[in-house]
Amino acid sequence: MPWILLTVAGLLEVVWAFSLKQSEGFSRPWPSLVTVVAMAGSFWLLALAMRALPLGTAYMVWTGIGAVGAFVVGVLVLGEPATAMRLGAALLIVAGIGLMKLAA
């Protein structure tokens, strides 16, 4: 169960990162509201997952899901460049998440 909570927390991090971009500096109310709600949910689920998972593992997986997820959304939805170096960096993050999960 902690891994499910952590995964959902990481996905909510992607949601709040995207909605933060859409809020245009908190100048648009609906994306701003989505940002705040998704942030609260993400932190809450991370806290619940940390009851059973080590700090370093939970935090690395959470931020990794958020970082790679935001990168994917940026490329697929916002048309950001998917250069070889950026793809390689995302792959390294995914590999690190996998190794951290194995270590836990």
From TrEMBL:
GO terms for molecular function: transmembrane transporter activity. Coiled coil: none annotated. It is a multi-pass membrane protein. It is found in: Cell membrane. Signal peptide: none annotated. Its main location: membrane. GO terms for cellular component: plasma membrane. GO terms for biological process: xenobiotic detoxification by transmembrane export across the plasma membrane. InterPro entries: EmrE-like (IPR037185), Small_drug/metabolite_transptr (IPR000390), Small_multidrug_res (IPR045324). Pfam families: Multi_Drug_Res (PF00893). The keyword S-adenosyl-L-methionine does not apply. Keywords: Cell membrane, Membrane, Transmembrane, Transmembrane helix, Transport. The chain crosses the membrane at residues 33-52, 59-78, 84-103. Belongs to the drug/metabolite transporter (DMT) superfamily. Small multidrug resistance (SMR) (TC 2.A.7.1) family. Gdx/SugE subfamily. This is Guanidinium exporter. It comes from Rhodovarius crocodyli.
